[in-house]
Amino acid sequence: QKEVEQDPGPLSVPEGAIVSLNCTYSNSAFQYFMWYRQYSRKGPELLMYTYSSGNKEDGRFTAQVDKSSKYISLFIRDSQPSDSATYLCAMSNFGNEKLTFGTGTRLTIIP
Amino acid sequence: NAGVTQTPKFQVLKTGQSMTLQCAQDMNHNSMYWYRQDPGMGLRLIYYSASEGTTDKGEVPDGYNVSRLKKQNFLLGLESAAPSQTSVYFCATQRSSYNEQFFGPGTRLTVL
Fold first, then answer.
1. Partner of A63 for a Cys bridge, out of A48, A51, B67, B93, CB 3.0 to 4.6 A?
2. Is B106–A45 a contact, with Cβ atoms under 8 angstroms apart?
C-alpha cells in the first residue's frame, strides 16, 4: 500500500462547477500538507500549503486537512478552463524536508 | 531571476549510452532533489542533497549517480542508459526548514 493515495482521474467538469480533489495517507506523522498544480509539459508549482489540521482559503481555492481521518482535500470554486491541469498532493513530517507525493489527478474544465 | 533551470529539455539515448542531466538554481537554497515522473507513478525521488558536497539516495536510485560540487548545481548521471529510464526528470530546490519545493521545467528522456 502506498503511503499517499490519490485518484488519478481523469476528472472532467463543466466551467463554473465546484471541484473536489482528495488524497488519503497512512503515515500519522505527516504534519505538512501541500497541493501542487502541474500544467502539461511543465514542472509542478505550489498552490496551497497547510500545517496540521484545518482549512485554508486562497481566492477560489480551499485546502482542508482532516488528520483524524488521514484525509486531505482541495476545493476549487467557480472552476475555469485555466484550472485544467494535474493536481498533486504532497506531505511531510516534522523534521523531514523530503516530500511524499500522490500520483496526481488530471483535471479538465470544459468551457 | 531564472529560478531552477534544467538542461537539456529533451534527449534521446540508445541503450548503454551515458549522459548527465544538469540542474542549476539561483535561489541560494541548500536542498536540491532529482525526481522522475512516470504515468501512474507520480513523482519518485531519485537522489537528494541537503547541502553542497552531500548526497543521499532516494526511493529509486539504481542506475543513477549524482554530484553536488557547487551549491547552485546538482547533476544527475546515467552511466549506462536502459529503456526503463525513459521518463521525465525534474529537479527541485528547497530552502532549509521550509517544505515548499521549487521545480524546474523538466527533461524528457527517451532511451531506445
1. A48
2. no
Instruction: With CB atoms and an 8 Å threshold, state whether B105 touches A42.
Output: yes
User: Under a CB-based contact definition with an 8 Å cutoff, are residues B54 and B40 in contact?
Assistant: no
A32 has a chain B CB within 8 A of its CB: yes
Q: With a cut of 70, list the residues of chain B below it in pLDDT.
A: 96-98
Average pLDDT of chain B to the nearest whole number = 94
Residues of A in contact with B33 (CB under 8 A): 98
Distance from CA of A103 to the nearest CA of B (A): 4
C-alpha A90/C-alpha B67 separation (Å) is: 26
Q: What gap in Å lies between CA A2 and CA A8, rounded to an integer?
A: 14
- Look up cell 513523482; give the residue: B43
Task: Report how far residue B72's alpha carbon sits from residue B30's, in angstroms, rounded to the nearest whole number.
Answer: 9
Supply B96's cell numbers: 532549509
- Residues A15-58 have pLDDT tens digits of 999 999 999 999 999 999 999 999 999 999 999 998 888 899 99
Answer whether A23's CB lies under 8 Å from A6's CB: yes
Coil vs helix vs strand at B50:
coil
A76: helix, strand or coil: strand
Non-local (6+) Cβ contacts of B109 within 8 A are: B10, B11, B12, B13, B21, B85, B86, B87, B88, B89
